[in-house]
Amino acid sequence: MLLVLIVVAASCGRTPLDVLDDGAAADGGTVTPPDSSLPDVALPDGASPNDAAAGPADVIEHHNASTRAGLYVQPGLTRKLAASLKRDPEFSAKVTGDIYAQPLYIHDGPNRHGALYVVTETNDVYALDETSGAVAWHVNVGAPAAMQGVACGGGIKPLGITGTPYIDRPSRTIFFDAVHGDGAGGIDTHKVHSLSIDDGTERAGFPVDVKGLTSNGVAFDPVVQNQRGALALVRGTLFVPYGAHPGDCGGFRGWIVAVPIAAPANTHAWTTPAPAAGIWAPSGVSSDGARIFVATGNGSAADGDLWGGGEAILRLSLDLDWGGTSSDYFAPSNWAALDARDADLGACGALLVDLPSAPNAFAVALGKDGYAYVVDRDNLGGIRDAGPQGLASAQVMTGDIEVAPATFTTDAGTFVTMHGQVGAQGTSCPPGQSGDLVTVQITADVVPKIKTVWCQDTQGHGSPIVTTTDGRAETIVWVASAGTTNRLHGWNAETGALVYAGGGDAEQLHDLQRFSTLIAVGGRLVVAGFGEVFAFRP
């Protein structure tokens, strides 16, 4: 029988899990190791070492791909079967701390059993048995910042691990950034950690303290920087993005820290030409395997009225070289007005999309002004309006588009699904449809086109993902809605018809947060919020 799990971690105090902590960990934390240490696993012939397809349903990074597509192939999860999900009371797990990051999954985790990996704002890291929810191991990497009585950055309290980690299969390692507190409520520093996925022990050369790294004559100040965006690992280098705390307080900038995982002492960084321009979207860094892409928020002018890196898609080399030519960035011509309105282009990150019939490769950006932009990622084109050089733009929402979008391709075409902030509604919706969840079709021509194909109301807020039985068929858009309903919902990805309405009283979720994003593994759906674990089955 197909088993579908919904994992939701809620805020809670110390639980029975804490009595298992009987070993020392880095920075004075604790670790509970598994029964034994096991050798690395050989990958199938021809498999890429960081390809999720190398193992059954492994999810090693945000939205299941470096492009941030959010697409999951689940052969048994048809629309008919998805309509009958029920809660399974036999699966249970709890964790300490609030979770903002997406869970990850490895099919051969501790003791070669499937495991979910979650990180929390109390700087706790868990490997959870996929069958029972029991703790395989638990590590605390040090005290987070309490963020009580501080003038800057009091949005998440406490503040620990926020951005989605990355799992490197060849080294069986999970990487993440953690905020370490100063003992007085504030932030001391950010450290990039590297733990074994088998027992939670810290790898040699880690953690890496990023305080004081320099770029463009500027030193990284951990007090004013937040780390919300997902990490990426490309060709042996880990990329960690940074932006601002809520309210954009302090002299923050958009930063990318690059950590060569085989030589962490060679860690280096890049920052935007001018202040602000934070890289804060949950999807963080995206990559096509040869370059990295980020989207930035509102910035400050570099010199008078000159653009300084904000409201943009930026393309950098894997050495963090940014040429600054028009092919290396895109910003709409009204960037200054967007800055003034705090209407970040970078609220959703850069989504990389390939159209089967198009000769060009594209990047999609979605803004707080409700606009979608499609640009040629080989020539982003600099500051410009819609029309020339393959740029398409359209207002698809009346207000903020936030969280992480998803993309999928069926026999009918290529689509992008996105979610609006509370109060935002789709524009150009089909007759009889409205709502904050919008799916558009992108078509290739001399200039790409963006067309709204359906709109629905999620009754909440969350990042969508898409499941399909074979890569194109039986596509379903899923959202775990934080807010009014706190329920899981699913829609036919091509038409917007409701597939799963959230179930009955037994299926009620709680304490989700608006940056939640699901994963799909082995026919299961998993989402992390603030503390409790639910299991669903047909």
SSE blueprint and pairings:
Layout: E1 4-7, E2 23-24, E3 30-31, E4 71-73, H1 79-82, E5 86-87, E6 104-106, E7 115-119, E8 124-129, E9 135-140, E10 166-168, E11 173-181, E12 187-196, E13 208-209, E14 214-215, E15 218-219, E16 232-234, E17 237-242, E18 255-260, E19 268-271, E20 286-287, E21 291-295, E22 313-317, E23 329-332, H2 335-341, E24 351-354, E25 361-366, E26 371-376, E27 382-384, E28 392-395, E29 401-410, E30 413-420, E31 437-443, E32 449-456, E33 465-468, E34 476-481, E35 487-492, E36 498-500, E37 519-521, E38 524-526, E39 533-537
Account of the 3D structure:
A hairpin with an 8-residue loop joins β6 and β7 (115-119). The strands form 11 sheets. The protein has a 5-stranded mixed β-sheet. It has a 5-stranded mixed β-sheet with strand order 20-21-22-23-27, with no helix packed on it. It has a 4-stranded antiparallel β-sheet with strand order 6-7-8-9, with no helix packed on it. Helix content is 2%, strand content 34%. The model is unreliable at 1-55 (pLDDT under 50). The longest helix is centred in the middle third of the chain and has 7 residues, at 335-341. It is an all-beta fold.
